[in-house]
Specification:
Layout lengths: L1 E8 L7 H11 L7 E6 L7 H6 L4 H4 L2 E5 L4 E6 L5 E5 L1 E5 L5 E5 L11 H10 L3 E5 L7 H13 L6 E5 L10 H8 L4 E4 L15 E6 L20 E5 L4 H15 L1
Parallel strand pairs: 1-2, 2-5, 8-9, 9-10
Antiparallel strand pairs: 1-11, 3-4, 4-5, 6-7, 7-8, 11-12
Amino acid sequence: MRFKIDTHVHIYPFYQVAAALDSLIDNMDTSDGSSRVACLTERYDCFLFDRLAAGGDAAVAAAWDAYRETDTVVRLVRRRDRGELHLCAGQQIVTAENIEVLALGMATRVVDGASATETVDAVLAAGGVPVAAWGFGKWIGARGGVVRDLLRRYEPGQIALGDTTMRPHGWATPFIMRAARRQGFRVLAGSDPLPFAGEERRAGSYHCVVDAPGATPANVVERLLALPADGVRTAGSRGSPVAVARRILAHKRSAN
């Protein structure tokens, strides 16, 4: 079975939540018979998955039917056209070294501020999929050494790297990412919307195309790192250097 999976989804409280879900449907084409999966990577102060799992989000309930399938997956069906999306629980964790680690397919919360290795160990212990996410300046110098150490410490079946729309197309692929691919590590694509209004339209714009025979939308995320390397590809767009610069400036303005 084929899946379209956005592995780095933020839906912040100040977003139009229904618009973010619409974007995930509209930006991940399933005309080939694939299924859509969106991995929430919620910040410490975001709890959308918990609200949806409890059936308590009015903005979503107005246009969507929600069905809790497992402890970590909610199936959403858009009423107007029956478009379907599986939303997977997860978290974005900031380590002591200021590295971002995504925890996919995991309802348990891991606190920010532990070391990168302690964070990855905690995610693995909770049954999640840890992903060291790329970020501007975060894979060079001492922090680049932290990421390289993670790839030495863990096997390809234990950790992945994360690519994002914040890495402009046309830029050279980071050396760490190229070397990791040669060693068999997965590089998982995600849209990574920024925390300011309007970014919700980015959701689903950069994602993985995953061929996983025997998997279902409810369990494909937990199987990602066990799939053959050629079973995980990327689709969508990361954005031009100018577009990325504009997003960064808009983010800075919104934070002031």
